[in-house]
Amino acid sequence: MAKDRKIELRLYVAGQTPKSILALNNITKYCKEHLDGKYSLEVIDLLKNPQLAEGDQIFAIPTLVRKVPEPIRKIIGDLSNEERVLVGLNIRTFTTQL
Amino acid sequence: MKSNKVYIFPKTRTGIDGLDEITGGGFPKGRPTLICGSAGCGKTLLAMQFLVKGIIEDNEPGVFMSFEENSKDLSQNVKSLGFDLDKLIAQKKLRIDHVRIERSEIELTGEYDLEGLFIRLNYAIDTIGAKRVVLDTIESLFGGLTDSGLLRAELRRLFQWLKEKGVTAIITGERGENSLTRQGLEEYVSDCVILLDFRVIDQIATRRLRIVKYRGSTHGSNEYPFIIDEDGISVLPITSLKLEHGVSSEIISTGLPALDILFKGNGIFRGNSTLVTGSAGSAKTILASYFALSSCRRKERVLYFSFEESPAQLIRNMESVDIYLGQYVKSKLLLIHSSRPSLQGLEMHLILLHKLIKEFKPRTVIVDPISSLVTIGSSSEVRAMLVRLMDMLKGNEISALFTSLNHDSRNEMNYITEDVISSLADTWIKLRNSEQGVGKLRSLSVVKSRGTGHSSEETSFIITDKGIEMHDANEAE
Fold it and tell me: Do A63 and B113 touch (CB under 8 A)?
């Protein structure tokens, strides 16, 4: 296992829309509960940085991207279903490995 | 062209040969156009040609948003057509954005919208100042995402947004079973809808294009054949069937002085179409060659379509009757194009004719024999095609000569060529072989010649190694 077990997350939003705020609140909460500080979360506002959309193949908003560990995973939506988000990010497996 | 005082919907040139004519100037400017058709019908190519030609010919930068192929594949696919996408991208005239939707790496939870796509497209458009946009094939979104109700609403918003952005857009869609597109995009893109079709009839593949609707504009409603060749897509417009073309009162020689004198003006009008009919071996090709020769001598280019002989064969055979065409082929006054009629569909021949005429700019066109084409199409198709061809030739004031083989028995094919061509042709020369004693008696008669008086007597002639020798009609009596 690599030393760096951090999960790197990026949340793509487009301005302060209710969906984006809800997604941010949701993922922050899940991370705190399940990842015990072993994560980084970067919020990218595409209204400010539109050029970043192409690189991560973003078409829907909000989209949460798990950059590390690979493979890349994407979760589209306001992340309201905790179970799906955790499974989608493979967090459950990750935590059991610890 | 007569000037049109009525309001004309602003249009953007399509960059597709012939399509501007059908659409009365192009796609609706600043609005989306839907191009639909089944897989492999040429949607992507048409869209790409629209962008590339827009850049090259109209200096309008374009964005290609691809939902299927990536930039590299797209670039390779159109390289054979001489489109250098990489160069255009480097010049910041073209932007390709490949939207890859990988179902396996995507999870959906909760509400979302397609704002990301809007931002991406907006960014791409603004970066290069694009005037043209292609979305190919946006319906792929439906394969990657599940909520089709939401997608529909978002697409509706996207098309509206494109309009507000003022870009001329092409949206491609896959043909559905009971609708034009699988997701019913035609309901949202309502300004202009074009359907492409690819069919195999009698083992000959034909591509067709039809304008399903074009709001606020007149358009041709027929199915138009189109081809994809080394220059991209060209559509064959059925040119206006109005008889508005200018006429010439200049008389030109048929190439055979003895034949010229049968006409009152000592020849036929420039821009006329002449039909030469006769059974096998009645010297149709020889007459056609005289006609070509006469044009070459006037230093006017001749395009000779030969459906039975190869160029070399034709040249050699004509040398035996003292007609030397080879020198004119060398000096590029004469272009002989040979092909087998059954090699391709009727439309393909016609489009090829159009293309060659456009490129070579001949003053004289010969089709020898036109009856060969009759064997590969149904009578109505052949009729329509010949009308179009003749119309085009007349419109360009090109003198034409068609030969037609008559079978001894009266069958359907005879009727087609005789009925269709003879009514369209301005001059009709009939050749006849009759058995007389041990030899053949050859004779020729002018059945009709519009606008000029002509001898109606049958004139006999012989073929020697010096060519056709006619007997003076009065002398023979």
Answer: no
pTM of the predicted protein model: 0.74
Which of these, B393, B386, B389, B395, lies nearest to B418 by C-alpha position? B386
CATH 3.90.1150.10, applies to A7-97? no
Q: How far apart are the C-alpha atoms of B472 and B461, rounded to whole Å?
A: 9
For residue A62, whether the previous peptide bond is cis, meaning omega lies within 30 degrees of 0, is: yes
Q: Which residues in chain B touch residue A73, judged by CB atoms under 8 angstroms apart? A: 105, 107
Provide the residue range defining the domain that includes B416.
251-476
User: How crowded is residue B90: how many other Cβ atoms within 10 Å of its Cβ?
Assistant: 10
Compute the residue count for chain A: 98
Indicate if ipTM > 0.85.
Answer: yes
DSSP letter for each residue of B287-309: HHHHHHHHHHHTT--EEEEESSS
CA distance B454 to A86: 94
What is the domain-level CATH number for residue B96? 3.40.50.300
Q: Can B68 be counted among the known catalytic residues? A: yes
CA distance A1 to chain B (A): 23
Per residue in B153-185, pLDDT (tens digit) is 999 999 999 999 999 999 999 888 778 888 878
